[in-house]
Structure formats: C-alpha cells, structure tokens
Amino acid sequence: MNSWRVSWRNLMRKKWRSFLTLLAIILGVAATVSAFAMVQSTQSIISDYASQGQGNTDYYVFSQQGWTDTDYINQLSEEHVIEEVLGQSDQRLILDKEIWKKENAQLDVQAMGINDLENAIYDIIVLDGTLDGNGLVIDERTAELWNVEVGDEINFSLHAQETEESVQIQVDAVVENTVLLTNPQSWEEAENNEWHVFIGLDTLQAWTDTEGQAKQLLVLGAEGISHEQLGNHLRDFFPAEENMIVQPAIVDESQIATGFEELYASLYVAGGLSLLISAFILYNTLYISVVERRKEFALMKAVGYTPGQTRGYILREVFILSLMGTALGLGVGVLLSYGFMELLSEVFTNVLYELKIGIPLLIAAGAGLVIPIIAAWVPVMKASNTEVTDVFRETISKSERKPTFFLIIIGMLLLIPGFFWDDMLAFLPLFIGIAILFPFLFSSIIWLLLPVSKLLFQRAGKFSARNLNRQKLRTALTAAILSFGVTLLVFLSSMALSVSDSMSKLIEETIGGDVWITYDDSISEETFHTWQDIKGVKDAVTYSASSLLWHVDKEEKDMRVMNVNSVTAERMENFPVFQYNQGYEQLLRDLEESNTIALGREAFEQWGGDIGNTLTVETVDGTRDWTVVGLVDTSRNGGYVGFIHDEQMEKQLGFNDQNEALLLAENDTSSSIKTAIISEEDASLATVKTAEEQIDAFQQQTEDIFFILNVLIIFGMGIAGIGIANTLLMSTIERVPEFGTMRAIGSTKWQIQKTILSEAFFIGTGAAIIGSVIGIGIMFLTSVQESDFMLDIPFRISWLSILLAFVFSILVSVLACILPARRAAKVNISRALRYE
C-alpha cells in the first residue's frame, strides 16, 4: 500500500502534467466508446429493420391474380404445421385537408389492414387502448404529432374502386414506436415521408369493397416444424389451378444498406486515432518524466532497488492514471455516444434506435487499461536500466539519438499499405510510418517556415526554430499526432466530395427519367395516359419490379429485380436504368435467352462469380440456375438489383404487373408533374420522386455521414492539442535556467511568450502542411487505383477541409501554448539562475 501512496504523491508533484495526461486518456477512451457504439448500434438498427419489418413471418402466400381469398386463413389455421396465419392488405388514405390544413404531400397515409392485431407474428406493445377492435392503431410519435388519443375520431379521404369518399374511424389504440410503423418525426419530414398506421382488415375491406379478400397471407410455422417442411406443406396445400405463390420471408440486410462496411471502418479508424494519440501523449509524458527523474532512479538503485522494483514503481503511476482516465472516459463516452446517435438518426430519418453500449464499454475499458501500459513500456525499461553512476552526473538530459537509416527504411515500408491498400485499416501502419519519418520531414518544415516565423515573431522566431531542432524528436512526435488528424480530415472530406459527385452522376444517368413513380398494384392504361396529358411530360414508360429469391453460399437472399426487354435499345437510351460498357443492344439480345440475368455491381460482388457462370434462384417452378450475362452499374437499390427478360418475370416469377413508371419532363417541370400526380390521389400510388430529390437526398446524406466522421476526427485533433500543451509545458520546465538567463539579460515577458508561441506555430503549421499533403496523396492514389467500390472515385480535393485543418491546427497549438507561455513568462530570475 505504501508503494501506491508513493506513486500517487509523484503524480501530485506534477499536477498539470498528470492532469493533461489523464485528460488525454479520458478523451481517447470516450472517442473509442462512441465509435464502437455507433457501429454496434447502426448494425443493430439495420438488423432490426430487416428482421422486425417482417415480424416472425416464415412465408408469404399470395395469388398471381392479385387478391387472395381470406377463407384460406381459417383453413390454414387448422393445419398442424402452422401456428398463425394473418391476412394483410394495404391502402393509401389521405388525411382530411379541411381539418389538418397541410400541404397535400404531408397528408399521405399508408394503412396496413390486418385481420388480427393480437397475433404471434407482429410484436406490438400497447400503451393505451386495445387491439381487439377494427379501429385505427397508431404509434406514440404519430399520436403526439396528430394530437389525438384513444377514442378520438379521424377523417380520411379514400379513393378506391374509382370512387372517392370520406371515411371516419376511431383510434382504438396507441402503441409503442415500432419499425413496423416508420413515421415522420415532424410535419416537415412528412413532405417526403408518408404516415403508416394499422387498421382492422374488416374495416379496410368494407371501405374498398374487397370483402373476403386480402393482398397476401402471412404464415408462421408451428414449433418444431422446419422452414423447409412448412414451405413444402404450403405448396402442397394450394391447388395448382389457384396459381398461388408461396414465398419464404427472407431477412436480407443488403436490401436496406449497402456499403456500410466502409462507414464502420472509418468510425473504427477515427476512434482508434483518438486512442493512438492518447497513447503517444502518455509515451511522451513518461519518457520526459523518466529523463527528468534519472537521478531519482539512480539513487533508488544505489539503496538496493532492483530493476523489477523500479519498473513497478513507474507502472503503478501509469496504472493509476489509466484506471482513473478509463473510468471517467467511459462515462464521457456514453454521453458522446447518445449525441452522435442522435446526429446519425437525423441522417437516416424516421429511424428508431437503441444504443448498444455494452460491448463498446468492454472494448474501450480494455483498451484504456492495456494501451497505456504498452505505451509506457519503453520509458519504463529506460527507467529500470538507469545506472547508479548517473546520480553523480550534472545534466539531466541527453542529446537525442538521431534516427538511423534503418528507421527510415522501416518508416517508408510502413507507408506502402496506406497508399496502395484499399482499406481504411491501412491507416494504422501508415500513421506509424509517418511517426517514424516525421523528424526528417519536420526539419524541412522548420526550414520552410523559418522566414514566416521571423516575420511574425522577429528574433523569437529564429530562437524557437533553433530550440525545436535541438529537441526535434520530441517535438516532431507531438506534431506527428496532430498531423494524423489532418490527414484523415483532408482525405475523408475529399472522399465525400468525390463520392457525392460520382453518385449524383450515377443517379442522374441511371434513374431512368426525371420523375420516378412506384405503385402498389399494376398501373392501369387509363392512369398511364393521364400522365402523358400532364403539362411538361415528354414521354413515359412502365416497368415491372419484383423481388427475387436467390442463393449465395448456401444462404437465401432477397434481391430486387426489374424487367427491361419490353423496351427497345432506343428506349433504353431515353430511360436508362443502368450503364453497360459494351452497349445496350448486345445485352438486351443476351437477356432474350431463357434463364439469363444481368446483375448490378453490389449484387455481382455479393454473388462472387464471373460472367457466364450461373446463380441459383427460386422460381414458381422451383429452384433454377440462371446464367449471369452482364455486370451493370446502376443507382437502383444501391446496385443490389438484377435485370431480366419480361418473359422470365411473368413465367418464372409469376409477376406481370407494370408497377413502376418513369417520366421524361421538359425543363424545370419535374416538381409540377409530381404535384399533379399526387393531386390525383390514386389509392395505389406508393411513391413519386423526382431525380433532383433523389440526388439532393443522397448528397445531404453523404454530407451528414462525413460530418459525423469529421466531428470524431476533430475530437481526436483536440486530444492532440493536449499533447502539444504537455510537450511545451515540459519543455518550459526544462528550460527554466534558459528563460531566467534571457530575462536577466533584458528580454521582456512578451519576448519569452513569443518564443513559446512561435514553437506552437511551427508545430501546428507543420502538422497541417504534412498532414494535408499526405491526405491529398492518399486521395490521388485512391482515385487511380482499381476499386471494388460500386462507383468511380474521381480525384477531388476539399479545399475547405484543408483551410479548416490549417485554422484548427494553428488554433489548437496556440491554445495549447497559453499555459506554458504564461509559466515561462513568470520565471523568477534569481531562482532560475540557481536552478540545478
């Protein structure tokens, strides 16, 4: 216990140094917690939306004719292999304009009619009211925005069966927010996102004159019945002449999110950067502390301490700091995680999230305790190897050992993966390589900036340059950790520009038209001709789009598939839904062959085969092998999509509805066309989006995601500021006699402060220059390398991020030097001259 008290007293002897080191550990641990929590929580959100959106459904059953007889619900419920069967239909409703006084786009409601809301398939938690009626069921968020409660009546406008009428329904229950009802968080968001509610199927059938019918049946198998057994039983149950389709409910997260692996890797790198900077700061602090206390360690050896006892002496101090820093950092990390997740939830509107913090806390706690010990190992070994004769030496510091040619070779080798490895994790060896080479680079930066420093700080600038060269290794390491943040900031911001431009171009070239319309049912001839009469519409075309079940590595997946052969190559030129380097005509001819498909890039990558190979798909006739005849680039479903011939869509997938449409618009008429289509209040209309809206939404989403990443990086650069303050503070303490001499020969306090300020200028500006150059270099090499990414990565430079990097680096350095500069200016001349 006494040895722990000694270690604690040693920490208290250098309060500021200990405090800054502790702060660095706190922030490093906090950044690690938040980065891992964001990854874990985002993965959980995607998984929840993929799985809970289908509830516990095992199979969907629907008719090729469009409607399914609800008598099957009772018949199937008596089968021993089935636990639950639900009938479900959807219907578009419009909130009463006279009552709500909102824009048309804000009043769209998608009602999900279910015959029994108290079921084993959907997990619905009731907050108020009951689910045993046929009334309206809304979530908590919607009840608050609509300002309604159980028992209130709500009026809707209903368009069905070529009639228009007003209907009224009572709110039966308010339920907990659920992914089944993804609703806008405000009336502003409702302009581009429809409302979702539950309603009794009987009520919906009565409103739409579809008594005894449902769009589809949802089937849950009994306990102990395998998925395959249930599927076979259902296929045998329905007579062949009924043309019923039995489709397994597949949870395929690729339908919701593609390319998130890069986001996760970026978050890991940003969080790891903060922890790495904390480790550098701890290493620097301990290294200087050991050099300062060399006489103390020599005396300990002289009185009988062994090297092991000396190591334990230092390690206890490290452990105290890491334990306190980790404990406090975990608390700060939890708060940061909530803040970042709020930002992320605003990026992906309507997202419900639950913060996953358990594993991130364990990882960060382990890293917070272990990494400081690793970082302290070299200084600890240096302390244990102190010789007894050191006690008789006058000086307390040695000249720094010059980096060797061997180190230069190692540093350059470590740079290679970062420049040529197409993975964010390659930044780890890159940063280590930069740290090794930084002393050489920093000498050049000092020489380059010397004229500017002399101009700004006069003689103090020249004096500080000489001092920095004298302590080059220590100062260079301090600047290096700041430059890591600058490198990431410049690279990721430039990458955001490149991805945004490239994706916007891909959306523009492959969305297929100026206005994109999707329908729940088949688009009628009358509706199609109505659109052609809208002012500004130059041309229109319809497509079929359905889901395709396919197998990858013995795993069932669910991909979107579109037909393309009902249009000519000329039509494809006008309504391009994909890009194909070898020309549309050849691909369309290849797709005319039976059992062929062209894949979007994301689907192609997940499949992992080559052109000409076959993939296995589920058709109405069972499992079939289709030949992949083309790889295309498209923005549709993030590239997780396939394109097939019309005949295959109808015969093998049992789908022949033309449920998507693309319109070409005259200049600046897309918005008015969209408004005209929405005003028709067609009950089967699902979505209407203009190309501009698609591009704007993607650009905004990209900006928001990279903003979150940049906030994490700037957080890490802030930690680097602590390291600069620590280094300058230690340098000031070591140079007390020097400052005392300067004061004795006539230097003013301001001249002393300018010396420290000038050193901070060299560190901040040097880090910004080197970090920016490396960031631009990585961006250039990324753009010229062949990548598996679905987009071309053109070379772009974010000049704004470079400006921010310079401003922030210099600002952090200047703020970090305030305390050391004040201390240096307060040096007592007589005491300083007696120092040592």
From TrEMBL:
InterPro entries: ABC3_permease_C, MacB_PCD, Macrolide_Exporter_MacB. It is found in: Cell membrane. Residues 269-387, 711-829 form the ABC3 transporter permease C-terminal domain. It comes from the Bacteria. GO terms for molecular function: transmembrane transporter activity. It is a multi-pass membrane protein. This is FtsX-like permease family protein.
